[in-house]
Amino acid sequence: MSALPSKSKGLPARRNVNERVPAVRCKICGGKTYPGLDLGAQPVGDLILTRADLRKPETFYPMQLFHCLDCGLTQLGYIVNPAVVYRFFPFVSGTTQTATRHLQTIPGQLVEMGGLGPSSFAVDIGSNDGTLLKAYRPFGVRTLGVDPSAIPARIANEAGVTTLHAFFNEDTAKLVILEHGQADAISAAGVFAHIADLDSVMRGIQILMKPTGIFVSENQYWLDMLLTGHYDNMFHQHLRYYAVRPLARLFAKFNMEIFDVRRSEVHGGSFRVFACFTGAHPIHPRVAEVMAAEEAARLYDPDTTMEWARSIDVRRRELKDKVWGLVRAGKKVIGIGAPAKASTVCSYCRLGPETIDYITEINPLRVGKYLPGTHIPIVDEEQMFTDPRPADAGVLFAWNYYDETVPKLRARGWMGEVICP
């Protein structure tokens, strides 16, 4: 167990001296936590606003990280009601080629590991528009998606990807078994950290998965967040920020173990964790190698997380100074891409319509709306090419798609400065 630092070193868990910090327990082991990076009160980043919404009150929620002294989990201290978070979820998995290609490598890996074929059944938790499940088609595997968001679930069903509109939990798992039987493979790509009732989901996986089945989750990797100094992956959907050690502790609670880990540079640093019932699959040496890398980086040392938080405050000031400096010099600044991380950055760095004229977007579910909290208008990407006064600079909020996005913008003649937050 790591020792709690005697001082927070300028990272406020308290708004004033007399305000008591509420106790936050670890969602995996129930252990004590200590407070870390605090981004202040923020709106739900994906609850983008209509023009009519601008005249209505908005709700802001705490956004602060807490770190477990026992298993090492990093989590948000406050969980927003999932019914609020997913009331309108304007994210579509297949928006970019980069995300689609990466996501669709998962079925091939599971087919190879588990020997899946036409007699097999695979379930995707948080299946969105069915992008991942479509990659099972060449192998003839029967599939089912489960997703709580109505719009992506409808898009998937219309595309022929059978999708159940529901939150996944043990009750949902029992319903799926009645109609489809147990699953040979279960995936949760980019959503496993979003789940509020984690134990219920794990019990559902226990029920639904065959004794020799494979469960794979893909998450943004907490180690990479620290190594790269990124913070904008913090938003109210991302309740936990995983590494291998806390996940191993989680799976052990449910008679499961990690048998393989694969890292990726996607989304600024992600990792796939393959788990099975204890003893069902041989454990790859990569598991020990990745755990050793976490220890070598002192990932679970409180001093490491505190130093990272201080570096984030420096990045905040640098971005704010950069944008305001351009505006004061008479330059026009726009945003490029309006994912939830755009809301996190703009709220934390105090960037609004007075500094960023608009944010461009290719997702039609977001175009014509406004960023929550700061109310920056979201427009079709075409506007940056037809604008009578082209922007001098653009903040690339979707920086994780830099290699795909920037060459396309340059090819179409946009030559403004690209700023990565």
Outline the biggest β-sheet: 7 strands, mixed
Unreliable stretches, pLDDT < 50, 5 or more residues? 1-15
Please tell me how large the radius of gyration is: 22 Å
Q: For the terminal residues, how far apart are their CA atoms?
A: 34 Å
What is the number of helical segments per DSSP (H or I, 4+ residues)? 14
- Mean pLDDT value: 91
Helix content: 25-40%
Overview of the molecule:
This protein has 421 residues and is an alpha/beta fold. The chain is built from 14 helices and 16 strands. α7 (198-208) links the parallel β7 and β8 (209-220). α6 (170-180) packs parallel to α7 (198-208). The longest helix is centred in the last third of the chain and has 27 residues, at 302-328. Residues 1-15 have low confidence and may be disordered.
